Protein backbone atom coordinates (compact mmCIF):
# COMPACT_ATOMS: atom_id res chain seq x y z
CA UNK A 1 0.00 0.00 0.00
CA UNK A 2 1.37 3.41 -1.03
CA UNK A 3 1.75 6.06 1.68
CA UNK A 4 -0.76 8.88 1.41
CA UNK A 5 0.45 12.50 1.49
CA UNK A 6 -0.47 14.16 4.76
CA UNK A 7 -3.18 16.84 4.44
CA UNK A 8 -3.40 16.43 0.69
CA UNK A 9 -6.85 16.61 -0.93
CA UNK A 10 -7.76 15.86 -4.55
CA UNK A 11 -10.59 18.11 -5.73
CA UNK A 12 -12.42 16.57 -8.73
CA UNK A 13 -14.95 18.83 -10.52
CA UNK A 14 -15.44 19.72 -14.21
CA UNK A 15 -16.99 23.10 -13.35
CA UNK A 16 -14.03 25.44 -13.06
CA UNK A 17 -15.73 28.04 -10.84
CA UNK A 18 -17.09 25.51 -8.38
CA UNK A 19 -13.74 23.68 -8.29
CA UNK A 20 -11.90 26.96 -7.68
CA UNK A 21 -14.24 27.94 -4.82
CA UNK A 22 -13.80 24.63 -2.99
CA UNK A 23 -10.02 24.62 -3.49
CA UNK A 24 -9.78 28.14 -2.11
CA UNK A 25 -11.67 27.25 1.09
CA UNK A 26 -9.51 24.18 1.62
CA UNK A 27 -6.21 25.95 0.89
CA UNK A 28 -7.10 28.75 3.29
CA UNK A 29 -7.66 26.12 5.96
CA UNK A 30 -4.10 24.87 5.39
CA UNK A 31 -4.68 21.86 3.14
CA UNK A 32 -2.59 21.06 0.09
CA UNK A 33 -5.01 20.74 -2.86
CA UNK A 34 -4.52 19.12 -6.25
CA UNK A 35 -7.20 19.32 -8.92
CA UNK A 36 -8.73 17.19 -11.68
CA UNK A 37 -11.42 18.21 -14.18
CA UNK A 38 -12.56 14.69 -15.17
CA UNK A 39 -12.91 11.18 -13.79
CA UNK A 40 -10.08 9.74 -15.89
CA UNK A 41 -7.74 12.57 -14.93
CA UNK A 42 -8.52 11.90 -11.25
CA UNK A 43 -7.75 8.18 -11.64
CA UNK A 44 -4.50 9.04 -13.48
CA UNK A 45 -3.41 11.34 -10.64
CA UNK A 46 -4.26 8.67 -8.08
CA UNK A 47 -1.85 6.26 -9.78
CA UNK A 48 1.13 8.49 -8.88
CA UNK A 49 0.20 10.33 -5.71
CA UNK A 50 -2.23 9.35 -3.01
CA UNK A 51 -4.12 12.12 -1.23
CA UNK A 52 -5.83 11.36 2.09
CA UNK A 53 -9.18 12.54 0.75
CA UNK A 54 -10.91 12.92 -2.63
CA UNK A 55 -13.61 15.53 -3.04
CA UNK A 56 -15.63 14.03 -5.85
CA UNK A 57 -18.27 15.73 -7.96
CA UNK A 58 -20.84 13.09 -8.96
CA UNK A 59 -21.50 14.48 -12.43
CA UNK A 60 -18.36 14.39 -14.53
CA UNK A 61 -18.02 14.67 -18.33
CA UNK A 62 -16.36 11.30 -19.00
CA UNK A 63 -17.15 8.68 -16.35
CA UNK A 64 -19.56 9.22 -13.50
CA UNK A 65 -18.33 10.15 -10.02
CA UNK A 66 -20.00 6.99 -8.70
CA UNK A 67 -17.83 4.85 -10.97
CA UNK A 68 -14.68 6.79 -10.02
CA UNK A 69 -15.56 6.22 -6.37
CA UNK A 70 -16.07 2.50 -6.94
CA UNK A 71 -12.72 2.22 -8.71
CA UNK A 72 -10.92 4.01 -5.87
CA UNK A 73 -12.51 1.80 -3.22
CA UNK A 74 -12.11 -1.50 -5.09
CA UNK A 75 -8.40 -1.01 -5.75
CA UNK A 76 -6.44 -2.26 -2.70
CA UNK A 77 -3.83 0.36 -3.54
CA UNK A 78 -6.24 3.27 -2.93
CA UNK A 79 -9.12 1.70 -0.99
CA UNK A 80 -8.11 3.47 2.24
CA UNK A 81 -8.42 6.97 0.69
CA UNK A 82 -11.48 8.86 1.99
CA UNK A 83 -14.09 9.89 -0.61
CA UNK A 84 -16.49 12.79 -0.07
CA UNK A 85 -19.07 12.93 -2.84
CA UNK A 86 -20.67 16.21 -3.79
CA UNK A 87 -23.77 16.29 -5.97
CA UNK A 88 -26.06 18.87 -7.52
CA UNK A 89 -29.02 20.19 -5.54
CA UNK A 90 -31.70 18.24 -7.43
CA UNK A 91 -30.24 14.90 -6.36
CA UNK A 92 -32.76 12.61 -4.65
CA UNK A 93 -32.36 10.42 -1.56
CA UNK A 94 -32.01 7.20 -3.65
CA UNK A 95 -29.15 8.90 -5.57
CA UNK A 96 -27.40 9.71 -2.30
CA UNK A 97 -27.94 6.17 -1.07
CA UNK A 98 -26.42 4.87 -4.30
CA UNK A 99 -23.42 7.16 -3.79
CA UNK A 100 -22.78 5.78 -0.34
CA UNK A 101 -23.31 2.19 -1.56
CA UNK A 102 -20.56 2.80 -4.11
CA UNK A 103 -18.19 3.22 -1.19
CA UNK A 104 -18.27 6.99 -0.52
CA UNK A 105 -17.43 7.82 3.10
CA UNK A 106 -19.73 10.85 3.20
CA UNK A 107 -22.03 12.89 0.99
CA UNK A 108 -22.80 16.63 0.58
CA UNK A 109 -25.27 18.39 -1.70
CA UNK A 110 -24.65 21.68 -3.50
CA UNK A 111 -24.67 24.48 -2.54
CA UNK A 112 -22.17 23.57 0.16
CA UNK A 113 -21.44 26.10 2.88
CA UNK A 114 -17.68 26.54 3.39
CA UNK A 115 -18.02 25.81 7.12
CA UNK A 116 -19.93 22.57 6.44
CA UNK A 117 -17.37 21.56 3.82
CA UNK A 118 -14.47 22.14 6.22
CA UNK A 119 -16.22 20.40 9.14
CA UNK A 120 -16.99 17.34 6.98
CA UNK A 121 -13.41 17.25 5.61
CA UNK A 122 -11.99 17.46 9.15
CA UNK A 123 -14.33 14.70 10.39
CA UNK A 124 -13.30 12.42 7.50
CA UNK A 125 -9.59 13.12 8.06
CA UNK A 126 -9.99 12.27 11.77
CA UNK A 127 -11.60 9.00 10.71
CA UNK A 128 -8.79 8.45 8.23
CA UNK A 129 -6.21 8.97 10.98
CA UNK A 130 -7.92 6.45 13.27
CA UNK A 131 -8.18 3.89 10.48
CA UNK A 132 -4.54 4.49 9.65
CA UNK A 133 -3.58 3.77 13.28
CA UNK A 134 -5.66 0.58 13.16
CA UNK A 135 -3.98 -0.45 9.93
CA UNK A 136 -0.56 0.03 11.50
CA UNK A 137 -1.60 -1.93 14.59
CA UNK A 138 -2.88 -4.73 12.37
CA UNK A 139 0.41 -4.79 10.45
CA UNK A 140 2.33 -4.93 13.75
CA UNK A 141 0.10 -7.75 14.99
CA UNK A 142 0.59 -9.68 11.75
CA UNK A 143 4.34 -9.24 12.05
CA UNK A 144 4.30 -10.33 15.71
CA UNK A 145 2.19 -13.35 14.73
CA UNK A 146 4.68 -14.25 12.01
CA UNK A 147 7.59 -13.90 14.45
CA UNK A 148 5.73 -16.11 16.95
CA UNK A 149 5.21 -18.77 14.25
CA UNK A 150 8.91 -18.56 13.36
CA UNK A 151 9.85 -18.84 17.02
CA UNK A 152 7.57 -21.87 17.57
CA UNK A 153 8.98 -23.57 14.49
CA UNK A 154 12.58 -23.00 15.62
CA UNK A 155 11.76 -24.02 19.18
CA UNK A 156 10.10 -27.23 18.02
CA UNK A 157 13.13 -28.10 15.84
CA UNK A 158 15.53 -27.41 18.68
CA UNK A 159 13.46 -29.40 21.17
CA UNK A 160 13.12 -32.36 18.85
CA UNK A 161 16.86 -32.80 18.34
CA UNK A 162 17.75 -33.85 21.93
CA UNK A 163 14.86 -36.35 21.84
CA UNK A 164 16.60 -38.50 19.23
CA UNK A 165 19.55 -39.50 21.41
CA UNK A 166 17.19 -40.08 24.37
CA UNK A 167 15.03 -42.32 22.20
CA UNK A 168 18.19 -44.02 20.94
CA UNK A 169 19.36 -44.68 24.52
CA UNK A 170 15.95 -46.15 25.45
CA UNK A 171 16.00 -48.39 22.37
CA UNK A 172 19.51 -49.48 23.32
CA UNK A 173 18.24 -50.47 26.79
CA UNK A 174 15.49 -52.52 25.11
CA UNK A 175 18.13 -54.74 23.50
CA UNK A 176 19.18 -55.88 26.98
CA UNK A 177 16.93 -58.78 28.01
CA UNK A 178 18.37 -59.10 31.54
CA UNK A 179 17.63 -55.63 32.91
CA UNK A 180 17.12 -55.05 36.61
CA UNK A 181 13.33 -54.50 37.13
CA UNK A 182 13.92 -51.01 38.55
CA UNK A 183 16.01 -50.01 35.55
CA UNK A 184 13.36 -51.52 33.30
CA UNK A 185 10.68 -49.44 35.03
CA UNK A 186 12.80 -46.27 34.69
CA UNK A 187 13.38 -47.04 31.02
CA UNK A 188 9.63 -47.41 30.45
CA UNK A 189 8.92 -44.10 32.21
CA UNK A 190 11.46 -42.31 30.03
CA UNK A 191 10.03 -44.08 26.99
CA UNK A 192 6.46 -42.96 27.75
CA UNK A 193 7.43 -39.37 28.48
CA UNK A 194 9.61 -39.13 25.36
CA UNK A 195 6.61 -40.38 23.37
CA UNK A 196 4.43 -37.69 24.90
CA UNK A 197 7.00 -34.95 24.29
CA UNK A 198 7.52 -36.14 20.72
CA UNK A 199 3.77 -35.95 20.07
CA UNK A 200 3.57 -32.39 21.42
CA UNK A 201 6.59 -31.24 19.44
CA UNK A 202 5.39 -32.97 16.27
CA UNK A 203 2.08 -31.10 16.58
CA UNK A 204 4.00 -27.82 16.85
CA UNK A 205 6.16 -28.69 13.85
CA UNK A 206 3.14 -29.70 11.78
CA UNK A 207 1.29 -26.51 12.63
CA UNK A 208 4.35 -24.47 11.65
CA UNK A 209 4.55 -26.40 8.34
CA UNK A 210 0.85 -25.85 7.64
CA UNK A 211 1.05 -22.13 8.48
CA UNK A 212 3.89 -21.73 6.01
CA UNK A 213 2.29 -24.00 3.39
CA UNK A 214 5.19 -26.40 3.72
CA UNK A 215 3.31 -29.55 4.61
CA UNK A 216 3.71 -32.03 1.79
CA UNK A 217 1.18 -34.80 1.32
CA UNK A 218 2.30 -38.05 -0.25
CA UNK A 219 -1.05 -38.86 -1.82
CA UNK A 220 -1.97 -42.28 -3.09
CA UNK A 221 -5.15 -44.29 -3.53
CA UNK A 222 -6.07 -45.77 -0.18
CA UNK A 223 -8.56 -48.25 1.08
CA UNK A 224 -10.31 -46.33 3.88
CA UNK A 225 -10.62 -49.48 5.98
CA UNK A 226 -6.80 -49.76 5.97
CA UNK A 227 -6.50 -46.21 7.29
CA UNK A 228 -8.94 -47.00 10.11
CA UNK A 229 -7.20 -50.31 10.93
CA UNK A 230 -3.85 -48.54 11.04
CA UNK A 231 -5.25 -45.79 13.30
CA UNK A 232 -6.85 -48.27 15.71
CA UNK A 233 -3.55 -50.08 15.81
CA UNK A 234 -1.60 -46.93 16.65
CA UNK A 235 -4.11 -45.86 19.31
CA UNK A 236 -4.62 -49.30 20.81
CA UNK A 237 -2.06 -49.02 23.61
CA UNK A 238 -3.34 -45.53 24.61
CA UNK A 239 -6.98 -46.72 24.60
CA UNK A 240 -6.03 -49.82 26.56
CA UNK A 241 -4.00 -47.81 29.09
CA UNK A 242 -7.22 -45.96 29.91
CA UNK A 243 -9.35 -49.12 29.90
CA UNK A 244 -11.41 -48.07 26.89
CA UNK A 245 -12.95 -50.47 24.45
CA UNK A 246 -12.95 -49.44 20.78
CA UNK A 247 -15.99 -50.60 18.81
CA UNK A 248 -14.96 -50.46 15.19
CA UNK A 249 -17.20 -50.73 12.14
CA UNK A 250 -15.03 -50.79 9.02
CA UNK A 251 -16.31 -49.75 5.59
CA UNK A 252 -16.09 -52.28 2.73
CA UNK A 253 -12.67 -52.43 1.04
CA UNK A 254 -14.22 -50.90 -2.09
CA UNK A 255 -14.45 -47.53 -0.30
CA UNK A 256 -11.27 -45.79 -1.42
CA UNK A 257 -9.93 -42.29 -0.92
CA UNK A 258 -7.06 -40.31 -2.37
CA UNK A 259 -4.75 -39.38 0.46
CA UNK A 260 -1.57 -39.58 2.47
CA UNK A 261 -1.67 -42.78 4.55
CA UNK A 262 0.42 -41.34 7.38
CA UNK A 263 -1.54 -38.07 7.60
CA UNK A 264 -5.01 -39.61 7.32
CA UNK A 265 -4.05 -42.13 9.99
CA UNK A 266 -2.86 -39.20 12.12
CA UNK A 267 -6.32 -37.60 11.71
CA UNK A 268 -8.16 -40.66 13.02
CA UNK A 269 -5.55 -41.32 15.74
CA UNK A 270 -5.92 -37.73 17.03
CA UNK A 271 -9.70 -38.11 17.21
CA UNK A 272 -9.48 -41.52 18.89
CA UNK A 273 -6.91 -40.29 21.42
CA UNK A 274 -9.03 -37.22 22.20
CA UNK A 275 -12.07 -39.44 22.70
CA UNK A 276 -9.98 -41.50 25.13
CA UNK A 277 -8.62 -38.40 26.91
CA UNK A 278 -11.98 -36.74 27.40
CA UNK A 279 -13.93 -39.85 28.43
CA UNK A 280 -13.91 -41.47 31.87
CA UNK A 281 -11.83 -44.66 31.96
CA UNK A 282 -13.43 -47.94 30.98
CA UNK A 283 -16.00 -46.54 28.55
CA UNK A 284 -16.67 -47.49 24.96
CA UNK A 285 -15.47 -45.45 21.98
CA UNK A 286 -17.03 -45.96 18.55
CA UNK A 287 -15.17 -45.66 15.27
CA UNK A 288 -17.26 -46.19 12.16
CA UNK A 289 -17.46 -45.18 8.51
CA UNK A 290 -20.29 -44.97 6.03
CA UNK A 291 -20.76 -43.67 2.51
CA UNK A 292 -22.99 -40.67 1.92
CA UNK A 293 -23.25 -39.45 -1.67
CA UNK A 294 -19.74 -38.99 -3.02
CA UNK A 295 -18.20 -38.90 0.45
CA UNK A 296 -17.02 -41.28 3.10
CA UNK A 297 -18.04 -40.16 6.58
CA UNK A 298 -15.81 -41.35 9.40
CA UNK A 299 -17.27 -40.92 12.88
CA UNK A 300 -15.43 -41.04 16.20
CA UNK A 301 -17.95 -41.03 19.02
CA UNK A 302 -17.57 -41.11 22.78
CA UNK A 303 -19.70 -40.89 25.92
CA UNK A 304 -17.27 -38.51 27.62
CA UNK A 305 -17.28 -34.99 29.07
CA UNK A 306 -18.94 -33.52 25.98
CA UNK A 307 -18.65 -29.89 24.85
CA UNK A 308 -20.95 -26.96 25.68
CA UNK A 309 -22.72 -25.52 22.61
CA UNK A 310 -21.00 -22.11 22.91
CA UNK A 311 -17.56 -23.76 23.08
CA UNK A 312 -18.18 -26.09 20.16
CA UNK A 313 -17.24 -23.66 17.35
CA UNK A 314 -13.96 -22.82 19.11
CA UNK A 315 -12.46 -26.29 19.54
CA UNK A 316 -10.73 -26.08 16.16
CA UNK A 317 -8.97 -22.81 17.00
CA UNK A 318 -5.23 -22.80 17.61
CA UNK A 319 -4.27 -23.37 21.29
CA UNK A 320 -7.94 -23.54 22.36
CA UNK A 321 -8.74 -25.81 25.31
CA UNK A 322 -12.20 -26.02 26.85
CA UNK A 323 -10.74 -26.92 30.23
CA UNK A 324 -7.08 -25.96 30.40
CA UNK A 325 -6.85 -27.23 33.99
CA UNK A 326 -6.91 -30.84 32.80
CA UNK A 327 -4.06 -32.86 34.22
CA UNK A 328 -1.04 -31.77 32.14
CA UNK A 329 0.23 -35.24 31.26
CA UNK A 330 -3.12 -35.94 29.56
CA UNK A 331 -3.59 -32.67 27.80
CA UNK A 332 -1.82 -31.37 24.75
CA UNK A 333 -1.18 -27.88 23.49
CA UNK A 334 -4.64 -27.30 22.10
CA UNK A 335 -3.27 -27.84 18.59
CA UNK A 336 -4.54 -31.34 17.86
CA UNK A 337 -7.91 -30.38 16.41
CA UNK A 338 -6.53 -27.36 14.51
CA UNK A 339 -4.05 -29.66 12.85
CA UNK A 340 -6.58 -32.43 12.31
CA UNK A 341 -9.04 -30.09 10.59
CA UNK A 342 -6.33 -28.63 8.32
CA UNK A 343 -5.13 -32.12 7.39
CA UNK A 344 -8.70 -33.12 6.49
CA UNK A 345 -9.13 -29.92 4.46
CA UNK A 346 -5.87 -30.58 2.60
CA UNK A 347 -7.53 -33.85 1.53
CA UNK A 348 -10.53 -31.92 0.20
CA UNK A 349 -12.69 -32.93 3.18
CA UNK A 350 -14.36 -31.39 6.23
CA UNK A 351 -14.24 -32.03 9.97
CA UNK A 352 -17.21 -31.30 12.18
CA UNK A 353 -17.71 -31.53 15.95
CA UNK A 354 -21.04 -32.43 17.56
CA UNK A 355 -22.09 -32.66 21.19
CA UNK A 356 -25.40 -32.45 23.01
CA UNK A 357 -23.63 -30.58 25.81
CA UNK A 358 -21.59 -31.12 28.97
CA UNK A 359 -21.44 -34.72 30.09
CA UNK A 360 -23.24 -35.93 26.98
CA UNK A 361 -20.33 -37.19 24.91
CA UNK A 362 -18.97 -35.90 21.60
CA UNK A 363 -18.87 -36.99 18.01
CA UNK A 364 -16.33 -35.89 15.43
CA UNK A 365 -17.22 -36.43 11.77
CA UNK A 366 -14.63 -36.51 9.01
CA UNK A 367 -15.99 -36.29 5.51
CA UNK A 368 -13.65 -37.26 2.66
CA UNK A 369 -14.35 -37.43 -1.09
CA UNK A 370 -14.26 -41.03 -2.27
CA UNK A 371 -12.50 -42.12 -5.43
CA UNK A 372 -14.87 -43.48 -8.05
CA UNK A 373 -14.64 -47.08 -9.31
CA UNK A 374 -13.01 -46.06 -12.58
CA UNK A 375 -10.29 -44.12 -10.86
CA UNK A 376 -9.88 -46.78 -8.24
CA UNK A 377 -8.69 -49.80 -10.20
CA UNK A 378 -5.30 -50.74 -8.78
CA UNK A 379 -2.26 -49.74 -10.84
CA UNK A 380 -1.65 -52.51 -13.34
CA UNK A 381 2.09 -52.82 -12.84
CA UNK A 382 1.66 -53.80 -9.21
CA UNK A 383 -0.70 -56.72 -9.85
CA UNK A 384 0.89 -60.06 -10.69
CA UNK A 385 -0.52 -61.17 -14.04
CA UNK A 386 -1.52 -64.85 -14.30
CA UNK A 387 0.56 -65.60 -11.26
CA UNK A 388 3.70 -64.56 -13.12
CA UNK A 389 6.07 -61.80 -12.10
CA UNK A 390 4.93 -58.56 -13.72
CA UNK A 391 7.09 -55.49 -13.55
CA UNK A 392 7.02 -54.09 -10.02
CA UNK A 393 5.78 -57.27 -8.29
CA UNK A 394 8.00 -57.88 -5.29
CA UNK A 395 8.76 -60.56 -2.75
CA UNK A 396 9.14 -58.71 0.51
CA UNK A 397 10.32 -60.05 3.84
CA UNK A 398 9.38 -57.95 6.84
CA UNK A 399 11.40 -58.52 10.01
CA UNK A 400 10.05 -56.66 13.02
CA UNK A 401 9.46 -57.63 16.65
CA UNK A 402 6.19 -55.62 16.70
CA UNK A 403 3.29 -57.98 15.90
CA UNK A 404 0.97 -55.14 14.88
CA UNK A 405 3.55 -53.57 12.59
CA UNK A 406 4.06 -56.93 10.87
CA UNK A 407 0.33 -57.49 10.54
CA UNK A 408 -0.42 -54.03 9.22
CA UNK A 409 2.40 -53.62 6.70
CA UNK A 410 2.03 -57.15 5.34
CA UNK A 411 -1.66 -56.49 4.79
CA UNK A 412 -1.03 -53.13 3.09
CA UNK A 413 1.75 -54.52 0.88
CA UNK A 414 -0.23 -57.65 -0.08
CA UNK A 415 -3.15 -55.43 -1.03
CA UNK A 416 -0.88 -53.88 -3.64
CA UNK A 417 -0.20 -57.28 -5.11
CA UNK A 418 3.15 -58.10 -3.51
CA UNK A 419 4.13 -61.39 -1.89
CA UNK A 420 4.95 -60.75 1.76
CA UNK A 421 6.34 -62.95 4.52
CA UNK A 422 7.14 -61.83 8.04
CA UNK A 423 9.49 -62.78 10.85
CA UNK A 424 9.40 -61.65 14.47
CA UNK A 425 13.18 -61.77 15.07
CA UNK A 426 16.51 -61.74 13.28
CA UNK A 427 17.25 -65.48 13.52
CA UNK A 428 13.86 -66.44 12.01
CA UNK A 429 14.37 -63.75 9.35
CA UNK A 430 17.69 -65.32 8.31
CA UNK A 431 16.02 -68.74 7.96
CA UNK A 432 13.23 -67.22 5.87
CA UNK A 433 15.66 -65.62 3.44
CA UNK A 434 16.84 -69.14 2.62
CA UNK A 435 13.34 -70.47 1.90
CA UNK A 436 11.41 -67.40 0.67
CA UNK A 437 14.11 -65.78 -1.54
CA UNK A 438 12.91 -62.19 -1.08
CA UNK A 439 13.73 -59.30 -3.44
CA UNK A 440 13.53 -56.86 -0.55
CA UNK A 441 14.06 -57.24 3.20
CA UNK A 442 12.70 -54.58 5.56
CA UNK A 443 14.57 -54.87 8.83
CA UNK A 444 13.61 -53.15 12.05
CA UNK A 445 16.86 -51.90 13.57
CA UNK A 446 15.95 -52.05 17.26
CA UNK A 447 15.06 -55.70 17.78
CA UNK A 448 15.91 -57.60 20.95
CA UNK A 449 18.63 -60.30 20.82
CA UNK A 450 19.89 -60.08 17.23
CA UNK A 451 19.43 -56.45 16.25
CA UNK A 452 18.77 -55.24 12.71
CA UNK A 453 22.42 -54.39 11.95
CA UNK A 454 23.72 -57.85 12.90
CA UNK A 455 20.78 -59.54 11.16
CA UNK A 456 21.62 -57.64 7.98
CA UNK A 457 25.33 -58.64 8.10
CA UNK A 458 24.37 -62.30 8.55
CA UNK A 459 21.83 -62.19 5.70
CA UNK A 460 24.45 -60.69 3.38
CA UNK A 461 26.71 -63.69 4.02
CA UNK A 462 24.06 -66.11 2.67
CA UNK A 463 24.53 -67.29 -0.95
CA UNK A 464 21.44 -65.33 -2.11
CA UNK A 465 22.17 -62.40 0.23
CA UNK A 466 24.20 -60.31 -2.19
CA UNK A 467 21.32 -59.48 -4.53
CA UNK A 468 18.71 -58.68 -1.93
CA UNK A 469 17.76 -55.06 -1.30
CA UNK A 470 18.13 -54.56 2.46
CA UNK A 471 16.33 -51.60 4.02
CA UNK A 472 16.80 -50.53 7.64
CA UNK A 473 13.62 -49.26 9.30
CA UNK A 474 14.37 -47.05 12.26
CA UNK A 475 12.93 -44.58 14.73
CA UNK A 476 16.29 -42.80 14.91
CA UNK A 477 17.36 -40.10 12.49
CA UNK A 478 19.02 -41.09 9.23
CA UNK A 479 22.33 -39.51 10.34
CA UNK A 480 22.38 -41.56 13.54
CA UNK A 481 22.11 -44.92 11.81
CA UNK A 482 23.83 -44.11 8.49
CA UNK A 483 27.35 -45.24 9.48
CA UNK A 484 26.28 -48.51 11.14
CA UNK A 485 23.81 -49.18 8.33
CA UNK A 486 26.59 -48.82 5.72
CA UNK A 487 28.92 -51.09 7.70
CA UNK A 488 26.22 -53.76 8.06
CA UNK A 489 25.45 -53.78 4.35
CA UNK A 490 22.10 -51.99 4.21
CA UNK A 491 21.16 -50.46 0.85
CA UNK A 492 18.79 -47.87 2.28
CA UNK A 493 17.19 -46.43 5.39
CA UNK A 494 13.57 -45.56 6.13
CA UNK A 495 12.74 -43.39 9.12
CA UNK A 496 9.49 -44.16 11.00
CA UNK A 497 6.65 -43.45 10.49
CA UNK A 498 6.95 -45.06 7.09
CA UNK A 499 4.30 -44.90 4.36
CA UNK A 500 3.70 -47.92 2.13
CA UNK A 501 4.27 -45.81 -0.97
CA UNK A 502 7.61 -44.76 0.46
CA UNK A 503 8.62 -48.41 1.02
CA UNK A 504 7.68 -49.33 -2.53
CA UNK A 505 9.35 -46.32 -4.11
CA UNK A 506 12.63 -46.86 -2.29
CA UNK A 507 12.51 -50.61 -2.99
CA UNK A 508 12.13 -50.18 -6.74
CA UNK A 509 14.81 -47.45 -6.89
CA UNK A 510 17.29 -49.64 -5.01
CA UNK A 511 16.43 -52.77 -7.03
CA UNK A 512 16.94 -50.84 -10.24
CA UNK A 513 20.29 -49.62 -8.97
CA UNK A 514 21.33 -53.16 -8.02
CA UNK A 515 20.29 -54.53 -11.43
CA UNK A 516 22.25 -51.83 -13.23
CA UNK A 517 25.33 -52.50 -11.11
CA UNK A 518 25.30 -56.28 -11.65
P1 LIG B 1 -5.76 -30.73 23.31
O1 LIG B 1 -4.32 -30.81 23.05
O2 LIG B 1 -6.13 -29.81 24.42
O3 LIG B 1 -6.45 -32.07 23.39
P2 LIG B 1 -7.22 -30.39 20.83
O4 LIG B 1 -7.01 -29.37 19.78
O5 LIG B 1 -7.06 -31.82 20.44
O6 LIG B 1 -6.27 -29.98 22.02
O7 LIG B 1 -8.66 -30.18 21.42
C1 LIG B 1 -9.08 -28.87 21.76
C2 LIG B 1 -10.08 -28.94 22.89
O8 LIG B 1 -11.29 -29.54 22.41
C3 LIG B 1 -9.63 -29.83 24.04
O9 LIG B 1 -8.84 -29.10 24.96
C4 LIG B 1 -10.94 -30.27 24.62
O10 LIG B 1 -11.41 -29.28 25.52
C5 LIG B 1 -11.90 -30.30 23.44
N1 LIG B 1 -12.09 -31.70 22.95
C6 LIG B 1 -11.43 -32.31 21.95
N2 LIG B 1 -11.89 -33.56 21.76
C7 LIG B 1 -12.86 -33.75 22.67
C8 LIG B 1 -13.73 -34.84 22.99
N3 LIG B 1 -13.70 -36.01 22.32
N4 LIG B 1 -14.61 -34.65 24.01
C9 LIG B 1 -14.67 -33.48 24.68
N5 LIG B 1 -13.89 -32.42 24.43
C10 LIG B 1 -12.98 -32.55 23.43
What does this entry look like structurally?
- The protein has 518 residues and is α/β, with parallel strands linked by helices.
- 47% of the residues lie in helices and 19% in strands.
- It contains 14 helices and 17 strands.
- It has helices spanning 16-28, 39-48, 65-74, 93-101, 114-174, 181-211, 224-241, 261-277, 336-346, 403-415, 426-436, 452-461, 478-488, 500-517, and strands spanning 5-12, 32-36, 51-57, 82-87, 106-109, 220-223, 245-249, 256-259, 284-292, 295-302, 350-355, 362-369, 395-399, 419-423, 440-444, 469-474, 492-495.
- The strands form four sheets. The chain has a five-stranded parallel β-sheet, with helices on both faces. A five-stranded mixed β-sheet has the order 7-9-10-12-11.
- The two termini are 63 Å apart.
- Mean pLDDT is 86; it is low at 376-391.
- Bound molecules: adenosine-5'-diphosphate.
Task: Give the topology.
Blueprint: E1 5-12, H1 16-28, E2 32-36, H2 39-48, E3 51-57, H3 65-74, E4 82-87, H4 93-101, E5 106-109, H5 114-174, H6 181-211, E6 220-223, H7 224-241, E7 245-249, E8 256-259, H8 261-277, E9 284-292, E10 295-302, H9 336-346, E11 350-355, E12 362-369, E13 395-399, H10 403-415, E14 419-423, H11 426-436, E15 440-444, H12 452-461, E16 469-474, H13 478-488, E17 492-495, H14 500-517
Parallel strand pairs: 1-2, 1-3, 3-4, 4-5, 7-9, 13-14, 13-15, 15-16, 16-17
Antiparallel strand pairs: 6-8, 9-10, 10-12, 11-12
